[in-house]
Amino acid sequence: MLGKTALLEAIAGKNRGLLASERDRQMILAAAAQLEDRNPTPRPTEAADRLNGNWRLLYTTSRGLLGIEQFPLLRLGQIYQYIQMETAKIYNIAEISGLPYLEGIVSVAANFQPLSAQRVKVNFERSIIGLQRLLDYSAANDKAAYNFVQQVASGGSLKAIDFSIAGREQKGWLDITYLDEDLRIGRGNEGSIFVLTKVP
User: Which InterPro entries does the record cross-reference, listed alphabetically (predicted)?
Assistant: First the structure.
């Protein structure tokens, strides 16, 4: 538990990584590595009960996600990843704010395929960009991501820019290096680290 506390304390106040200095990043990576060495779930891709559900991002080094803040007037809100083990689907949802009444979300849906006890291959299928108010999405509510995923999974039309990205060349994979009841650490093929907490 000490390792978990150390990681959470190192992450605190870093705004998902946006405010992390190089020294902060090194401390966080060291704390994550110590925790990964004591992973209580040695075969995480087979632990459906633990993986299933909604996860909120606490920290990442992903330039793709953190780079959203570089656009003028845009601010990155909460980022969620909803995992449906029974359908082998992943839904990534990033909340975007900036101008009043123009708060939005950017979502990518993907399917995944376990390649080993720790690694999954991710195939991106669909991208959705829209205004929160037109999608009945309520930010600052952890249940909003769940409700949105239900809309997407139902196959109904959405008041959003909604397009397929299936079939494009994809080489994405993710190693799940730590998994317990409420914390997950992943490392992607581009060298990024992701630390997430499970939403009750």
Answer: PAP, PAP/fibrillin_dom
What is the chain's mean pLDDT, rounded?
A: 90
Within 10 A of 189 (CB to CB), how many other CB atoms are there? 13
Task: Indicate the fold that domain 2-198 takes in CATH.
Answer: Lipocalin (2.40.128)
- Indicate the pLDDT class of residue 171, thresholds 50, 70 and 90: low
Domain ranges of the chain: 2-198
| Predicted TM-score of the model (pTM) | 0.91
Question: Quick one: which of 159, 142, 163 has its CA closest to 151?
Answer: 159
CA distance 196 to 79: 10
- Closest Cα partner for 35 from 64, 58, 1, 67? 1
**Quick one: 34 exposed, middle or buried, by C-beta within 10 A (0-12, 13-18, 19+)?**
middle
To the nearest 10°, report the CA torsion of 10, 11, 12, 15: 150
Q: β-strands 183-188, 173-179: how paired?
A: antiparallel
Nearest to 136 by CA among 127, 149, 123: 149
